[in-house]
Amino acid sequence: MATQTILNRSANDEVPTASFDRFGGICAILAGIGGLLYAIAFVIISRSAPALGGLLSALFLTLNGLLASSALATLYQRLRSANATAALWALLLGSAGALGAAIHGGYDLANALNPPSAVNADLPSQIDPRGLLTFGVAGIALLVNAWLIAKDGTLPRSFGYLTYVLAALLLFIYLARLTILSPANPVLLVPVLLSGFLVNPAWYIWLGLTLFRSRAA
Q1: Is 40 exposed, middle or buried (0-12, 13-18, 19+ CB in 10 A)?
Q2: pLDDT at 197
Q3: Rounded to whole angstroms, how far apart are CA atoms 67 and 83?
Q4: In angstroms, what is the C-alpha Rg of the chain?
């Protein structure tokens, strides 16, 4: 009787988990698309139309941070069996990075909608100085997740390799931003373009598709 009760409870718990898996997968795909749109707005549109580019990039950064938090929570659910403590740490770091990006984007969005009389662009953000959360903390979270992906074995190994690549790019961008202020510097520009236009969107879209396929299986 007790065994049957436990089995019934597990079956009932599986329904909301599966539902959130689908929701997290959708959020991951949208985060990948939004990340690409952010890169287009920040790098391309802002050159010809600075005001529009600043507004769109701030909007996409805010939305992407919120979408990423759901995707990372779903990833935690998949990886916690490999190492529950490490998976929780990765979730906390990843959520801090995602919310830091959303707050940073919200700050830029507020300034774009109601421009202040004077803004010193050389000063780092007090919430996300030089991308500490957006790049630095998020990169550490991805490193932990990459290790968990390899340890768990349920997600594709190649996805784990891509996670290592994205983590390395984000950490490099953060360290470079500490000393290089010009976004046109090739040392900073190349990893930013590689991450923004290719690796980051591919990682989130791949994560979303993997969540859907594994849940269907």
Answers
A1: middle
A2: 97
A3: 24
A4: 19
Mean pLDDT of the chain: 87
Name the nearest CA neighbour of 139 among 96, 104, 77.
Answer: 96
175: which 2 tokens? 């360290």
Token readout for 150 is 């390899």
> Locate tokens 């774009």: which residue?
112
Q: Compute φ and ψ for 185, nearest 5 degrees.
A: -65, 125
Q: What would the pLDDT profile of 117-174 be if each residue is shown by its tens digit?
A: 766 666 677 778 889 999 999 999 999 999 999 999 889 999 999 999 999 999 999 9
Cβ(166)–Cβ(203) below 8 Å: yes
- Cα 77 to Cα 85, 151, 216, distances in angstroms: 12, 15, 16
Least Cα distance to 171 among 192, 140, 216 occurs for 140
Q: pLDDT under 50 in the chain at which residues?
A: 1-16
Q: Residue 121 has what pLDDT?
A: 63
- Token duo for residue 199: 């690796």
- Residue 189: is it exposed, middle or buried by C-beta count within 10 angstroms (0-12/13-18/19+)? middle
Nearest Cα neighbor of 96 from 85, 84, 88 is: 88
Joined together, the tokens standing for residue 30 give 């949208």
Mention every residue, 6+ apart, whose C-beta is less than 8 A from residue 24: 70, 71, 73, 74, 75, 77, 208, 211
